[in-house]
Amino acid sequence: MADQHNHEHDHEHEEPEVTKVIGEVPDLSNAEARPITVVGNPVLHRECQDVTAFDAELSTLIDDMFASMYAAEGVGLAANQIGVDLKVFVYDCPDDEGVRHIGHVINPVLEEFPADRRRVLDDGHEGCLSVPTAYAELPRPAYAAVRGQDKDGNPVRVEGTGFFARCLQHETDHLYGFLYIDKLSKRDRKDALKQMAEGTPKYATVPNN
Ligand SMILES: [Zn+2]
């Protein structure tokens, strides 16, 4: 997911100071930033494969995903955004309460919204590294929880509020073949694609044939 800092609606998103960090930035000394796939590339529009091998190759993929996300100044990245057909996402994303969340989830599944929790929608704007330079308003539940595994195959559960809840939903959607623009009205989707056509990304992308 793209950072909200990079767009014109900055003033609408009040970012609290980071007072707490959950997770840590991995050692990326051997990691390589890879170019980002963009809307239209088939790998983004179908469900990715489940990860079954929790090996060194998976660790390298996660590190390269972090490197790619940081190079593109994103706050979340799914494996198919660097052309890899596997259910993996990484994040380094603030929530609305001043907590910076850093980590990865393998084979994520979004939990059903808890019945006992008030269904509050977050009205923020959203962008995606695979739809470069475009942003659109997209209401999403202001709370989300994802279950999956870590790189060693251990079960994990990650939950978040506000902007981080948006990120968890956005990245899980990617791995099932959906982009945020697929959730927009026809008109807003068209507008986002127009913004993309008129803009130039500040990071390397994979050309569509
Ligand atoms: Zn995205």
UniProtKB/TrEMBL annotation:
CDD domains: Pep_deformylase
Cytoplasm is among the record's keywords: no
Enzyme Commission (EC) number: 3.5.1.88
Active site: 171
Cofactor(s) required, per the database record: Fe(2+)
Reaction equation(s) it catalyzes: N-terminal N-formyl-L-methionyl-[peptide] + H2O = N-terminal L-methionyl-[peptide] + formate
Enzyme class: hydrolase
Pfam families listed in its UniProt record: Pep_deformylase
Keyword flag Transport: no
Domain of life of the organism encoding this protein: Bacteria
Binding note for cofactor: Binds 1 Fe(2+) ion.
UniProt-annotated binding residues for Fe cation: 128, 170, 174
InterPro entries with a match to the protein in the record: Peptide_deformylase, Peptide_deformylase_sf
Role, per record: Removes the formyl group from the N-terminal Met of newly synthesized proteins. Requires at least a dipeptide for an efficient rate of reaction. N-terminal L-methionine is a prerequisite for activity but the enzyme has broad specificity at other positions.
Official protein name in the record: Peptide deformylase
Native organism: Kitasatospora cystarginea
Lineage, uppermost ranks: Bacteria, Bacillati, Actinomycetota, Actinomycetes, Kitasatosporales
Gene: def_2
